[in-house]
Amino acid sequence: MGVLIGIVGSGGGKDSPSATVTVTATATGADVQAGAASPSATAGPQQEAAPKGGIPGDGTFLVGKDIQAGTYRSEGKNTYGYYWARLSDTTGKGSAIIANGNAQGPAIVKIAAADKAFQTTDCKPWKKIG
Fold first, then answer.
1. Beta partners for 73?
2. What is residue 66's DSSP assignment?
3. How far is it, in rounded angstroms, from Cα 73 to Cα 43?
4. Could you list the pLDDT tens digit for every one of the 130 residues in the chain?
């Protein structure tokens, strides 16, 4: 299995956010033949476990496959904030955003069954509350 690790940071000043680490794993033919599972989402280095029925902090999750429609709450972060978005598709285009927000403290989001995906960045796990 090959692994690519990249670190992205800003200028490094005292008010700079901490570095972000991206890990990409690629299964080789031997791994596939041996039945190695491939990860469906990438996780940050300090990601907390998602509560049962919840959403881990970072990633793009398909509604109906990775997560269920419903109302979710995150405790958020105290510094630098975090981002969330309800998406109508996974093209990455701005027109796919149904609703989004930036928050620092707790946030509540209602994900509809008609939503295609939910994206969350630099956030603590989301707990399903309804």
1. 108, 127
2. T
3. 19
4. 443 333 333 344 444 343 333 333 333 344 334 443 333 443 443 444 555 778 987 899 999 999 999 999 998 876 788 999 999 999 999 999 999 999 988 999 999 999 999 999 998 899 999 9
Q: Are 84 and 118 in contact (CB under 8 A)?
A: yes
Neighbours of 69 (CB within 10 A): 15
Residue position matching structure tokens 């031997």: 30
| Tokens 């996974």, residue located | 90
Q: Which residues are registered as beta bridge partners of 108?
A: 73
Q: Copy the structure tokens of residue 31.
A: 């791994």
Element spanning 29, H or E = helix 29-33
Tell me how far apart the alpha carbons of residues 15 and 29 are, in angstroms, rounded to a whole number. Answer: 45
SS3 state of residue 100: strand
